Amino acid sequence: MLWRGGTGHRRICRAWREVAVQLAAAGFLVFAAARSAERLEEELRKEADAAGRLPPRIVALTMDVRAQDSVQRAFNEVLERVGRLDVLVNNAGVLVVGTVEMVSVSQAEDMFQTNLFGAMRCMHEALPIMREQKSGCIVNVSTIFAEIPTMNQPVYAASKAALDALTLGTREAVRPFGISVHSLQPGGIVDTAIGASLSNGDRFEPDANPYPIDALVKESVFDRIIPKGQKSAEVAKIVVDMALGKVEAAIMQTSEFTKELAKAKLKDTTGNSIVALRY
């Protein structure tokens, strides 16, 4: 299994460390990749010490999903060590906060390079291996915001909606090779810091911004989403269930709250009711 963190030199998101730890506990040898393998190893060791447990079966790799050569080297290392790849979790992500007018095209391109094209690069490396062994599972980590794009982060939502489309369009093509593909749509995760992979739109100076972005974030994220959020361990368990073949769904929300939001979208093909929710 190859797991890749997208926060680089910053702190690796707790939710995805939890995925790695739970997969290791389920019997997988986990190859956890980030732009700083040393930082990842340090964080995993600290967590194990704090919990009074032995370090899990996790091998830290260096990989930048934006760079094809880096991705190829990481996958080649996995093959050299174990000769196969059973699960790929595409969880790297960056987030720019801002309305579409606040976010520059260069920022949007940066998000898509990680959130969509980074996942594609990893899938390009994983799928030939999985086809050859006639088995495998790919989990693309999306967000419920792909279904209900928020006013304060529509470009991020667009990058994740594209990832969901990639999942749906790939799923049946690879099924004959024994490969399953899923998208995971969490909402708020309450026990992790989102600031490590977050930046603000750069097209306006703060005193010239016509949009009340702080109020929009408060209304959407802190007043509505976080109070109904989940802990990292809950989301990680669903990833493990997907890896173990216990989940059939192509796209899966991680809580009753996010499932209801997805259902609301399906009930109104115009999208007007979702927009009226003011997320």
Describe the structure.
By secondary structure, the chain is of the alpha/beta class. The protein has one domain (2-276): 3-Layer(aba) Sandwich (Rossmann fold), CATH 3.40.50. It has nine helices and nine strands. It has helices at 14-25, 37-51, 68-82, 105-133, 154-174, 213-225, 232-243, 256-267, 272-276, and strands at 2-4, 30-34, 58-62, 87-90, 95-97, 136-141, 179-185, 198-200, 251-253. Strands 3-2-1-4-6-7-9 form a seven-stranded parallel β-sheet, with helices on both faces. Strands 5-8 form a two-stranded parallel ribbon. Helix 3 (68-82) runs parallel beside helix 4. It is globular and about 55 Å long. Residues 1-12 have low confidence and may be disordered.
